[in-house]
C-alpha cells in the first residue's frame, strides 16, 4: 500500500446528477478512487457511462441543471474542492489541474495565434513577459515536438493539423505547470500513428515532471498503453478496479470481459470485431440491482434484485469487482447474501 501522503487526488462517493423535467439522471452514481503522485489512473467504459461527467465534476465544470450531490468528496492535496467557490476553482483550473480534451479547438481560441495563447498562459502563471515569454513559448513548442517552432508560434490554430493542435494544447498546459492532468479522450479524434506519438509524449512529460494523470477513454488498447491502474465504468458506477496488467490478465467482471473481447487486434484473422449487444442505460433511479444485468451473459435472478458491491476478486485487495458472481468459490446464496449485507452497511453509512 502506498502511503497516504502520496495521494494527490482522492474522490469519495462522487454523485453527480442532472435534473431534467422528466427525471433525475444519475450520471455519476457513487464512485471512489485515488490518484497518487506520478501515476496514471484510467477510467474506461462505453459512451454514456459517465466518464466525462466524472472529469467535469473534478474540474468544477458542472453547471445547472447538473449538481454534485451532498456527501460527495473530491480532495486535491487534502483540500475539499466541492467546497470551493468560483474564484478558488478558477485558480485550480489555471494552475493545479491541467486539462486535455478530445477536441483541441475547445482549448484554443481561433482568433489568437498559438504563440499568443501560450505567452498569455506564461504571463498569468509564471509572470513571464516580452522576449522572455517568447523564448519560453518556443521552448515549450519544441518540447512537444512541434517542428519549426519560432515560425509556428505566429500561426493560428486553424493552420495546425489535428495532432499539432493537440500538441499545442499540451504546450499551453505545460505553461500552467500543473501537478495533475485530466485527459478526456485526448487521442480519439487522431489517427493511430499520431495517437501513439501523443501518448508517448504524455508519458515522457509525466516522467519529467512527476505528473499525476487521470486518463479517460473508451479504448481498452489505449488503456493498456498508458494506465497504471484502471477503473471500468458502467452506467455511472465503477464495476471493476485493478492494476492494468492484472485487469488484462485476469478480468473478472463480465462487462470488462465484454470490453476486452471488443479490442481490435485481439481477434484471429477473419473474425468479426466482437462487441457487447445493447447500449448503456441512462441511470435514473437508485441502483437496487445490477445495471449491467440486462446485457450480461452470466446474469441470474438475484442480479435484478440486489445491488452488487465491490469485493476482492484477485490476489490482492487492489483488484475488486462489483458482481454477484463473487467472492469466488462461495455458493450463490452465500454470495448474494454477502452483497446484500455490504449494501445495507453502505446505505446506512450514507444516511
Ligand atoms: N448537461 C447534461 N444534461 C443532462 N444529461 C447529461 C448532461 N451531461 C451529461 N449527461 C448525461 O450523463 C451521462 C454520462 O455522460 P458522459 O458524457 O459522462 O458519458 P461518457 O462516458 O463521457 O461518454 P462518451 O464516451 O460518449 O464521451 C449520459 O447519460 C449523458 O446523457
Ligand atoms: Ni465523454
UniProtKB/TrEMBL annotation:
Principal cellular location given in the protein's record: membrane
Report the superkingdom from the record: Archaea
Q: What is its EC number?
A: 7.2.2.11
Q: What class of enzyme is it?
A: translocase
Q: Which residues form the ABC transporter domain?
A: 9-260
Subcellular location field: Cell membrane
UniProt cross-references to Gene3D superfamilies, sorted A to Z? P-loop containing nucleotide triphosphate hydrolases
Topologically, how does it sit relative to the membrane? Peripheral membrane protein
Task: Give the UniProt keywords, A-Z.
Answer: ATP-binding, Cell membrane, Ion transport, Membrane, Nucleotide-binding, Translocase, Transport
User: What GO MF annotations does this protein's record show?
Assistant: ABC-type nickel transporter activity; ATP binding
Listed under catalytic activity are:
Ni(2+)(out) + ATP + H2O = Ni(2+)(in) + ADP + phosphate + H(+)
Query: GO CC terms for this protein?
Result: plasma membrane
Q: How does it assemble?
A: The complex is composed of two ATP-binding proteins (NikD and NikE), two transmembrane proteins (NikB and NikC) and a solute-binding protein (NikA).
PANTHER family from the xrefs?
Answer: NICKEL ABC TRANSPORTER, ATP-BINDING PROTEIN, OLIGOPEPTIDE TRANSPORT ATP-BINDING PROTEIN APPD
User: What protein does this entry describe?
Assistant: Nickel import system ATP-binding protein NikD
What organism is this sequence from?
Halolamina salina
Q: What is the lineage of its organism?
A: Archaea, Methanobacteriati, Methanobacteriota, Stenosarchaea group, Halobacteria
Amino acid at each position: 500500500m502506498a502511503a497516504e501522503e502520496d495521494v494527490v487526488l482522492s474522490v469519495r462517493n462522487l454523485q453527480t446528477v442532472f435534473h431534467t423535467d422528466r427525471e433525475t439522471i444519475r450520471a455519476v452514481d457513487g464512485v471512489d478512487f485515488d490518484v497518487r503522485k506520478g501515476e496514471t489512473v484510467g477510467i474506461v467504459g462505453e459512451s454514456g457511462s459517465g466518464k466525462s461527467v466524472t472529469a467535469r465534476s473534478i474540474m468544477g465544470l458542472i453547471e445547472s441543471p447538473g449538481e454534485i450531490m451532498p456527501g460527495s468528496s473530491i480532495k486535491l492535496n487534502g483540500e475539499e474542492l466541492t467546497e470551493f467557490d468560483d474564484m478558488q476553482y478558477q485558480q485550480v483550473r489555471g494552475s493545479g489541474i491541467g486539462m486535455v480534451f478530445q477536441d483541441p479547438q475547445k482549448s484554443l481560441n481561433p482568433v489568437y495565434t498559438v504563440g499568443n495563447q501560450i505567452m498569455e498562459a506564461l504571463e498569468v502563471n509564471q509572470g513571464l513577459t516580452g522576449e522572455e515569454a517568447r523564448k519560453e513559448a518556443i521552448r515549450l513548442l519544441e518540447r512537444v515536438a512541434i517542428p519549426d517552432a519560432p515560425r509556428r508560434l505566429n500561426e493560428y490554430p486553424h493552420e495546425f493539423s489535428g495532432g499539432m493542435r493537440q500538441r499545442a494544447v499540451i504546450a499551453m498546459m505545460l505553461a500552467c505547470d500543473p501537478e495533475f492532468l485530466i485527459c478526456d479522450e485526448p487521442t480519439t479524434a487522431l489517427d493511430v500513428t499520431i495517437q501513439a506519438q501523443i501518448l508517448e509524449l504524455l508519458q515522457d512529460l509525466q516522467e519529467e515532471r512527476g505528473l499525476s494523470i487521470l486518463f479517460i477513454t473508451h479504448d481498452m488498447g489505449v488503456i493498456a498503453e498508458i494506465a497504471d491502474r484502471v477503473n471500468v465504468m458502467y452506467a455511472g458506477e465503477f464495476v471493476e478496479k485493478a492494476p492494468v496488467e492484472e485487469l488484462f490478465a485476469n478480468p473478472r467482471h463480465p462487462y470488462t470481459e465484454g470490453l476486452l473481447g471488443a479490442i481490435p487486434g485481439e481477434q484471429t484473422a477473419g473474425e468479426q470485431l466482437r462487441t457487447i449487444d445493447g447500449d448503456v442505460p441512462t441511470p435514473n433511479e437508485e441502483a437496487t440491482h445490477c445495471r449491467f444485468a440486462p446485457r450480461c451473459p452470466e446474469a441470474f435472478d438475484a442480479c435484478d434484485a440486489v445491488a452488487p458491491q465491490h469485493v476482492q476478486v484477485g490476489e490482492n485487495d487492489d483488484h475488486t469487482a462489483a458482481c454477484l458472481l463473487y467472492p469466488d468459490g462461495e455458493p450463490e446464496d452465500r454470495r448474494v447474501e454477502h452483497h446484500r449485507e455490504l449494501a445495507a452497511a453502505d446505505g446506512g453509512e450514507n444516511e
